Amino acid sequence: MEIEALAKPAGILCRHNTGTACGIYLERPEACARWHCLWRKIGALPDELRPDRSGVVFSLESRPPIAEAPDEACIVGRAVDGVHAFDRWEVAEAFAMFVREGSLPVWKASDRDATMLNRGPKTPARRHRGRAVPRRSPNLPG
After folding, report:
1. In 3-state terms, what secondary structure has residue 5?
2. Per the domain annotation, does 136 fall within a domain?
């Protein structure tokens, strides 16, 4: 997610990520303190899908992970531990569950690529696939 207080654009790993935790956890901005991944929001998700165990963070996002796709709410599973995390059976089953539910587009994203797995009920019928491109906030320089 975009975090204005840290000048962090959406789609880019935070510079305070240590690989296992937040390096500024006690001083983190309010936007970070309020945000929860879907593992924390959906009680039915098993412990194996906890991001530090699965290597994938599932989140509800306001825009897709590639610039060419139309802005809309979607579910994004982001590999934070390398794309090999997508091969884990529990991660594959989580993607399948979100696709079966069908109310929102579902995206699989890594630092290099993003693929739409399910278009949801309102998305045009074309299939988006492309390089994950960070979107720049109008409030950020550059």
Report:
1. helix
2. no
Give me the sheet containing 56-61, strands edge to edge.
Answer: 56-61, 74-79, 106-109, 114-118, 129-130
Total-model pTM: 0.75
Q: Identity (one letter) of the amino acid at 13?
A: L
For the chain, what is the largest distance between any 2 Cα atoms, rounded to a whole number of angstroms?
Answer: 44
- Higher confidence at residue 120 or residue 107? 107
Query: Token pair of 141, please?
Result: 């320089």
- In whole angstroms, what is the distance from residue 4 CA to residue 31 CA? 9
Six token digits for residue 45 = 């998700």
Could you tell me if 40 and 11 lie in one domain? no
Chain-centre distance for alpha carbon 130 = 15
* Cβ–Cβ < 8 Å for 29, 1: no
One domain for residues 63 and 117: yes
pLDDT at 122: 61
- What are the tens digits of pLDDT across the range 48-84? 999 889 999 999 988 888 888 888 899 999 998 789 9
Residue in this structure with the two tokens 């935070």, named with its chain if needed: 14
